User: Fold this.
Amino acid sequence: MRTKKEKDAYLIVQNERAELGGGIKRIDQQHAKGKLTARERLNLLMDPGSFQEIDKLVTHRSKDFDLDKQLILGDGVITGFGQVTGRLVYVFSQDFTVFGGSLSETHAEKIVKIMDMAMKNGAPLIGLNDSGGARIQEGVVSLGGYADIFYRNTRASGVIPQFSAVMGPCAGGAVYSPALTDFIFMVDQTSYMFVTGPNVVKTVTQEEVTSEALGGAHTHASKSGVTHFTAHNDAQCIFDIKKVFGYIPSNCEELPPEQPYELQGDELRPALDQILPENTNHPYEMREVIKEIVDMDSFHEVQPDYAENILIGFSRIAGKSTGIVANQPMSYAGVLDIHASKKAARFVRFCDAFNIPLLVLVDVPGFLPGTDQEWNGIISNGAKLLYAFSEATVPRVTIITRKAYGGAYDVMNSKHIGADMNFAWPSAEIAVMGAKGASEIIFKKEIAEAADPKEKHQEKIEEYTDKFAHPYHAAARGYIDEVIFPRETRHRLIRTFEMLKNKVAVLPRKKHGNIPL
Assistant:
């Protein structure tokens, strides 16, 4: 029978074995790839001394293919809870040094356990993914483990924030858990995601493609839009997670965290009066508008390299967390297309789920025309953004800086779909379409019969512009609550969001709506 001293020594040895993962050689291999180990990542993420591990001594139960001779404590994933910037979070970190981070029955059970705990206690879930996929030696039980995780991701959606950092391979069924979470973070050159890998692609389609080109961070940041943030290395990726975490509440019942702020006099921003070019067809940088409106250096853009004709991101206005959706005139004149609509709709729904007020900056000439857009479903995809805004019950404020044409005016958080306050700058043009196209239709006969059709057309463009291309018809009907000078924008927003902080809006009783997916 062991003595107390022997028992204590045994526990120390077991802990040391668990913390070593797959061993020094495999840890060195991980470092050689430019990657941190699972525990090193946790040390960066969690507040010092706050992490408490759960199921540290778990081992797999498989006996096939001699797996019973390869029992490694922890079974390839570290799970537990702790604090990030003083707030409770639950976390799992897959360990690629143990069976390539592959998911077994017990590996999945460990993740499921902390997911259930996160839901019960209303705390965010952060997953650090670095896995070769399902442990094929275990067959269907590993697949069942993935499904158990997917189910909980879905149940937790909109209840607690869920972050996924892909910090290595993530392939096959493994990709669907990150896809079900709120935000995906990837690391350039060391992480990738795809349903089928390059070898399968080559076998089935004869295409030759590398893992990086098929599903690397740059690909998903710019082409597919699957990832929301891209980092140069593991440390930056974890820093990005912590930065986004600072804008959001711990669950759907709480308000987002605030930062102290003292009002700076009248909060006027004269630089805004100089931003718009004289020629309404010339672009300008909407980020410069955002910079002047929000608290200094507080705008954190989401998906900056995808659907660049629309900007989304988190910011603070007078210390309060605010989600921003803004057309970007520097890219395709800020037009709405399939990708922009989906990008903005998902962000709007996230902000609404977690009580983050929305600011919408509008300069939109309409929806992008063309067969490519129509055949790929601009109708149903544009409706996603319309649905998202219409369903949102958080405070919603709109600023029309310049163009707001056609159906895009309606979709971009207009008064008609439930926006709380709608402002316009004097430069705003609210109309069914642009003056050139409208005059060609309205004055078609007059232009055709004129001695100089070109001169007549220009005359009618100016006539239509004077009559309709301004915000005052909309203001006269109450669709615009106030026409303001650009310099007054921040001042108005601070007062408006403060007025709206106790807003209560209740959706009709139903199981759930049927968003046009």
About this structure: The chain has three domains: 4-245, 270-432+469-499, 435-468.
